[in-house]
Amino acid sequence: MKETLDKFLVQIEMMNLNISSGKPALKKPLCLLLLISKFENKTINENKIRFIELEKELGELILSFGARPNKSGPKPNQPFQYMNSSTFWDIHLPNGVEMTHKRDLSLKILRDSETYVTLDQEIFEMLNNSREFRAIATEFILKKWWPETIQEEILSSLSLPVYFPISTRPPRNKEFAEKVLSNFRYRCAICGFNATFNKSHFGLDGAHIKWFSQKGPDIVHNGLSLCKIHHWAFDKGAITIEPKNLTIEVSPLFVGRDHQSIEIIESFNGKEIFPFKEEMPEARYLDWHYEYIFMH
Q1: Tell me: the pLDDT tens digits for 163-197?
Q2: Separation in Å, CA 213 to CA 60, 142, 156, 201
Q3: SS3 of 100, please?
Q4: Which of 44, 121, 141, 291 is deepest in the core (most CB within 10 A)?
């Protein structure tokens, strides 16, 4: 079964994602994570996966974690259809309907009772029978496409299995974090939070502007010193930083429902970030965040 897992991970690594201006949509990885969660919760009984069983949940996941904003909606039909380019995913269509990779199939066809996907049988049996291998596949997918702030939220929202042995977690780049924090004088670039606990810096992260999982480099120009809540809000796309004048922009989709949440997030809209010491965050990384992560 270990050979089957290795084959599955290689196929995931090779999976083609829709890319626009160098920014991949994360719909296929989310579809796989949803599928793994259904194996985990024992809601898949046979090797026939129907779109109507995934449609609603997958759409919600794409809206929350799909990364690239899309004004036309989440379109969960796309990963269900186009994952057919991977060898582990075989879509079956009603008689007379031909598969295409040039246009979206209609929702009517995808919701048809004769439309379903079968997984490679060995991979199906592995996901169905091994919680350990489900957890390893989950970790592989999460680490490949999302930063840790978002990984934990996806794990929680889907009740996915966890498998984080020390040997599989790459060490954090402490030098990168320290240089980024130093560049902002050990305070949050958004709110100015600056504290120590037990003589150590407390509650601050050296955050990547362009995610490390998306080939964002470990350099100070790609870093911001952020407190925990603003790091999470930045990675979620609730806030961004305008590249030219380094002002904070709050997503119109964020709505503070009490005075405290308004103070913590909304009140910073239009304000400049706290000054850096030497190295200015580069516009190309801030542009990437604005276009790819920020929820307009």
Answers
A1: 655 444 455 577 999 999 999 999 999 999 999 98
A2: 22, 9, 20, 26
A3: coil
A4: 141
Those residues of the chain that have pLDDT short of 50 are 166-169
What is the model's pTM? 0.79
- φ, ψ for residue 98, nearest 5 deg: -100, 140
**Which residues are CB-neighbours of 119 under 8 A, at least 6 positions away?**
47, 49, 88, 89, 90, 127
What separation in angstroms does the CA of 225 have from each of 41, 52, 98, 177, 190? 39, 43, 52, 8, 8
User: What is the sign of the dihedral through the CA atoms of 61, 67, 73 and 77?
Assistant: negative
Question: Which run of H or E residues covers position 89?
Answer: strand 89-92
Q: How far apart are CA 219 and CA 183, in angstroms?
A: 11
How many Å apart are CA 156 and CA 152, to the nearest integer? 6
pLDDT at position 98, please? Answer: 87
Helix (H, G, I), strand (E, B) or coil at 135: helix
Distance from C-alpha of 220 to C-alpha of 208, rounded to nearest angstrom: 9
Neighbours of 174 (CB within 10 A): 9
Q: What single-letter amino acid sits at 82? A: Y
DSSP 41-83: TT---SS-B-HHHHHHHHHHHHHHH--S--TT---THHHHHHG
Q: Which residues does residue 249 pair with via DSSP β-bridges, in sequence order?
A: 240
| Token pair for 149 | 């702030």
- Cβ-based neighbours of 222, under 8 Å, separated by 6 or more: 208, 209, 210, 216, 281, 282, 285
Alpha carbons within 13 A on the beta-carbon side of 100: 10
22: left (phi over 0), alpha (psi -120 to 50) or beta: left
Beta bridge partners of 204: 227
**Residue of 71, 69, 67, 83 whose CA lies nearest to 31:** 83
